Sequence to fold (169 residues):
Amino acid sequence: MSFSFVCPTCGDTHEGMPTDHGWKLPDVVWDIPEGERSCRGKFNSDLCQLGDRFFIRCVLKLPFTEQSGYYGWGAWVELSETDFYRYVAIYDKDGSEEPTVPGAIANAMPGYSQTLGMPVMVQFQGSTSRPTVHVPSASGHPLALEQTSGIDNRRYHAILVSTGAVGGP
Fold:
């Protein structure tokens, strides 16, 4: 049985199961009525400013345990103004040697409790990769465990169901 899906980002049909899910904007910005959004905030596919709040789009990777690769949550993370502008300054450079910076997840992630506002650490990457998100293991959040231990095919399927990528059991 083969599976394919239409990518919401590029519009193309891809073979296999989706290995990522992302948000176009932080939840607080997405909640603004569409006609007002661009007047109240400045944003593109990687950066967002809403008043004195600053966000960057990142990837939170969950390694697969029964296949190669990872599942990537394309989440927005709120940063301090200083860290946001540091990221902007090195946007087209290799930022992987930069120290990690604190942030907070800016999207409610389906299948998890209390991700909105959850403290995380962000590692900038090279110019062709989005920054990565690390959930501190001390948080005790399931994402921290999954990021460390990985996800099996059963959990992967549950994530796909929670995002609406596939139907339930």
Observations:
- The chain has a mean pLDDT of 91.
- The longest strand covers residues 53-57.
- Residues 6 and 57 are 22 Å apart (CA to CA).
